[in-house]
Specification:
Strand order of the largest sheet: 1-3-2
Bound molecules: zinc ion
Number of helices: 6
Distance between the termini: 17 Å
Shape: elongated
Helix content: 55-70%
Largest sheet: 3 strands, mixed
Number of domains: 1
Number of strands: 3
Structural class: mainly alpha
Length: 227
């Protein structure tokens, strides 16, 4: 019954926004993944350069499987670059690698929101897995404290997706500045990098909005039960 109630409609805008954001990432990646930069350096070379200039030579750069699976692991201090990025010199590859270098710089310079985000990861993993069973049991047994605990667990997921926003926007901001200042891309190429990175940022905005709507839904379900 819970899955069929009308409040599920609330999740729809978040879902559509997420799909639209993913479509934009894919199309920007497809477009700028085919256009090389005038400088011709690979994303791996650019990453080495950027990290060295930042005095952050201790970061390991490794290729990783999959498409758009690029990430920076702050615990292991490893930059993982996907196959379409690692040895490639496209505008998209350079932009994505520079964004991940931006995360490595955040760690290097003790950027507060990144620290907060990392500290939140274990808590959020537990909260996001447990909130729904807890909430559901609360509804089934009509026991408000359990419902409240479920909502609190989910709120952690929302807080996490909100903390992620400054971390992501800041990494892209650093990437654009580094690529432009270092002369790795031309002014025109920088426009392509910006298109790829802002499309990627939109997926995080969509996730945050999706979480916000889910919280709203849980609160409504909780209120409906009481009235
Ligand atoms: Zn990122």
């Amino acid at each position: 019954m819970l899955y069929m109630d009308w409040t599920i409609i609330l999740l729809l805008p978040g879902l559509l926004l997420g799909l639209w954001a993913q479509y934009r990432v894919k199309s920007a990646y497809a477009k700028y993944g085919k256009i090389g930069t005038a400088r011709g350096l690979t994303a791996e070379q650019v990453s080495h350069d950027l990290l060295k200039r930042d005095g952050n030579a201790g970061v390991a750069i490794q290729p990783t499987e999959g498409e758009l699976t690029d990430n920076y692991d702050p615990l292991a201090n490893i930059l993982h670059l996907s196959q379409g990025v690692y040895g490639q010199s496209s505008i998209a590859a350079i932009g994505i690698a520079a964004h991940e270098c931006g995360h490595a710089m955040q760690k290097q310079h003790d950027y507060g929101p990144l620290k907060l985000r990392s500290a939140f990861v274990p808590v959020v993993n537990i909260g996001s897995n447990l909130y729904f069973p807890i909430f559901l049991l609360g509804l089934i047994f009509s026991w408000q404290p359990l419902i409240t605990v479920g909502i609190i667990c989910f709120s952690l997921t929302l807080v996490f997706s909100l903390i992620t926003l400054p971390v992501e926007f800041n990494a892209s901001h650093r990437a654009l500045a580094m690529l432009s200042d270092g002369g790795y891309v031309t002014e025109e190429e920088l426009g392509g990098v910006r298109a790829v990175l802002s499309a990627a940022a939109m997926t995080y905005v969509a996730a945050a909005i999706g979480s916000l709507l889910q919280l709203l839904r849980l609160l409504l379900l909780s209120r409906n039960r009481r009235s």
